[in-house]
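explain this.
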Amino acid sequence: MNAARPASPGEGVKERIITDRAGIAEGTAYLARRCPRMAHAISLVDEVPLRWRGDGFEALLGAIVSQQVSVAAADAILGRMRAAGLMTPQAIGASEEDSLRAAGLSRQKVRYLRALADADLDYEGLRRRPTEEVIATLTAIPGIGTWTAEIYAMFSLGRADVFAPGDLALQESARLLYDLPERPKPAAFRAMAEAWSPWRAVAARVLWAYYRVAKDREGIL
């Protein structure tokens, strides 16, 4: 039940699924037609990234490990966990806390990873469930918040119409692109993103890509 193959993540789901560049192209074309500012952002970025990756336990484990640490620190921790064979629910459940802490995990993250292992999620079943149910299922597990669940739905399940309004880079990118007086708050940003449906996940990719361009030009910290 814990293994997951990186193919056909949307089997049985009546939602758009993005797993290749064709989906990105269709989504960006739609957004460019609908919104001149989106069209401007798309014109400035070298490429709107696909960022599709496999789903399953390891994907969520990586998301939890990466919370509130730098990319380099997360990579180092994950490297030590792989070397120690700590990348499966069975290994996490059987390991002493000291072994997990030795990999660089905080006590809180040890609890979160054990909760994820104990949840025994049906990862293949998640592929067939509506996005709202996926997010509700994941956020019921300690250590998985709404942002993590939305990112999992977006990049591991390929859902085309999910957004992450709590993401600070998306908020700042929208502020710059739409000339807003301040970063939109999550509730207002979620409402704003309705205009990008049914390609909100592509709009998120555009905004992340635009953020990198704007950061280079504006010196955003």
Remarks:
- The chain has two domains: 21-52+162-218, 57-156.
